[in-house]
Design a protein that fits this description.
The protein is an alpha+beta fold. Helices cover 19% and strands 49% of the residues. The chain has helices spanning 2-16, 21-31, 43-46, and strands spanning 37-42, 48-59, 65-75, 80-89, 94-100, 109-111, 114-121, 124-133, 141-145, 151-157. The longest helix has 15 residues, at 2-16. The protein is globular, with a radius of gyration of 18 Å. The termini are far apart. 20% of the residues are buried.
Length: 161
């Protein structure tokens, strides 16, 4: 019986100390602080930081409401980053995401259902300003131009992350 209790207690120790990435996202959505970056974790202590910014909500042409959260997760000894645009419904249930190449690809704001991109950053040499209209619906793909006809295509992924 003691072995069984010990084996049941170990997983609680391993998972009970920190929240999952999705739990941090839920905290950020619940705070409902539009445009404010929230940082979870500490690079100095954990070599991992999660930066979340709630950009706001929009209504599509089918009168459905969605929330937009951007995420930059810095991890590993070389401080790599994973960048995403996350879409949730009004009940904070995950709908899908766009996985982006770089942190500087993330939108900086959302105004009246338009995602605002300004790709001028120390990590990017693109200088185009771009807005993507989400009111028409969540696009299956977004093309974000850089120089000339080059750019990035980001696919909407609705499978669980």
């Amino acid at each position: 019986m003691k072995k069984l209790l010990f084996l049941l207690f170990i997983p609680m120790l391993a998972t009970g100390q920190t929240l999952s990435e999705e739990q941090y996202r839920q905290k950020a959505l619940q705070k409902n602080l539009s445009g404010k970056e929230l940082v979870y974790g500490s690079w100095e202590k954990e070599e991992s930081e999660l930066h979340l910014t709630y950009l706001g909500k929009f209504q599509d042409k089918k009168n459905r409401w969605f929330k937009v959260l951007i995420s930059a997760w810095y991890w590993g000894t070389s401080r790599r980053a994973t960048s995403r645009i996350l879409i949730y419904d009004l009940k904070n249930q995950y709908v899908g995401q766009y996985y982006l190449s770089m942190v500087c690809d993330l939108p900086y704001a959302m105004e009246n259902g338009w995602l605002k991109f300004g790709r001028k950053d120390n990590g990017c040499d693109c200088d185009k300003q771009l807005s993507v209209d989400l009111k028409a619906g969540i696009p299956k793909q977004m093309f974000v131009p850089c120089k000339g006809e080059s750019g990035d295509i980001w696919e909407f992924q609705s499978e669980p992350n």
